[in-house]
Amino acid sequence: MSGESGLTHFDAEGKAVMVDVSAKPSTTRIAIARGRVVMAPATLETIRQGGIGKGDVLGVARLAGIMGAKRTAELIPLCHPLPLSSVKVDLVPVAPDAVEIEATAKTTGQTGVEMEALTAVSVAALTVYDMCKAIDRGMRVEGVRLVRKEGGKSGLWEAP
């Protein structure tokens, strides 16, 4: 038995369970998340010039983010596996010292895709770090956050 709303991760004994969303209607759901990797200006310049020995950093990170979104339910306990209709990951170098990352995840289903968008950004950021760590171990992943979600009972939400 779950809480009043029926949407809780705990049963009557307080044990963790996956939320039962079977009574919820399927709607189009979209989530957008953002984050950034801050690095030394020289590292960003090396990325821009294609000088990282492991290959195209932004291209590989884009693909990794998409793949990460598709595997979110395997990574986050109690997260529902979702049939994603699209995932888009953009990485943009921003002078003097950062790569901005934005991910958009979309599905038609009974629960939202916020976790998929957040996972896409996180995996893309970690991929940038992994590919560049040999020249800049001081990089930082910052500001990973949900900035917009649409659909479902709560409708539209945008970060202030």
From TrEMBL:
Active site: D130
GO MF assignments: cyclic pyranopterin monophosphate synthase activity
Enzyme class, first EC level, given as a word: lyase
Superkingdom of the source species: Bacteria
UniProt: substrate binding residues: L78, C79, H80, M115, E116
Pathway(s): Cofactor biosynthesis; molybdopterin biosynthesis
Catalytic activity: (8S)-3',8-cyclo-7,8-dihydroguanosine 5'-triphosphate = cyclic pyranopterin phosphate + diphosphate
Xref: Pfam families: MoaC
EC number: 4.6.1.17
GO biological process: Mo-molybdopterin cofactor biosynthetic process
Domain Molybdopterin cofactor biosynthesis C (MoaC): 18-152
Keywords recorded for this protein, A-Z: Lyase, Molybdenum cofactor biosynthesis
Subunit composition and interactions: Homohexamer; trimer of dimers.
UniProt function note: Catalyzes the conversion of (8S)-3',8-cyclo-7,8-dihydroguanosine 5'-triphosphate to cyclic pyranopterin monophosphate (cPMP).
Family affiliation: Belongs to the MoaC family.
Name of the protein this chain belongs to: Cyclic pyranopterin monophosphate synthase
